[in-house]
């Protein structure tokens, strides 16, 4: 659906995986050339100084969905005053990890090189990365990759500073490594709503492929940041978490991923020693996937939360009440 308020353009992006040390080696790939889609939503009304930028990576168990499925979400967010970049990354099982991660890293390079063009009317000094479920996983692990990489490489790739992360029920801990680690695993593993233990495990297996063991996967901070950092000493763990940007994580009350996302928000906030906050909001009486088709109220509240970060590091009480979520 075309909008009188927005300009929507779709780009087919091709890049060479071996062109930068930022990209992780794709062991199962038969070619160094990769291809994915980007869709840009730009408000038509000019705004002095430009609109804040939201880079969104969609969910779907790393296997399902497409940027078309999230068109409504991205249009609504752009109509609330954002330049939205929707990332159509390569999917498993045809493209196993780290294909999806490399695609988002390349998309951030594209953002840094192209959104400075006046035609996009974008303000890269207000850049938020966001995603839901598998997209939240890709987003958070791209941040880990960027902070652990040689910063000269990141600079060379022209990736702009990321100011905020805004995640919906992200997958952050490799489930097959410890199926009882979190209470929500036990509550919703056998009879989960939308997402239960067999489905979650199958999605992780599709992403991992057959070349990597569970032990290797759980120890890889670019694949499963929480299980990987659990094995490190407290100082090394805090050093990674403390560098992650603030923002917020939104979870669903009835979701197997609920508690790992809440724990991620807690450890990032604690590691920062007050320099940044990753807030957690639990949304009551909803299940995994609720953000995929947002109501107007939900889009308004999500946009308000993102924008409040750039006004103040602590959103106002009014904004928090409007989210109709419970903060922990």
UniProtKB/TrEMBL annotation:
Organism equals Naegleria gruberi (Amoeba)
Q: Which residues form the active site?
A: 133
What highest taxon heads this organism's lineage?
Eukaryota
Q: Which SUPFAM superfamilies match?
A: alpha/beta-Hydrolases
**Residue limits of the Alpha/beta hydrolase fold-3 domain?**
54-291
Name this protein carries in UniProt: Predicted protein
Which GO molecular function annotation, any one, does this entry have?
hydrolase activity
Gene3D superfamilies per UniProt: alpha/beta hydrolase
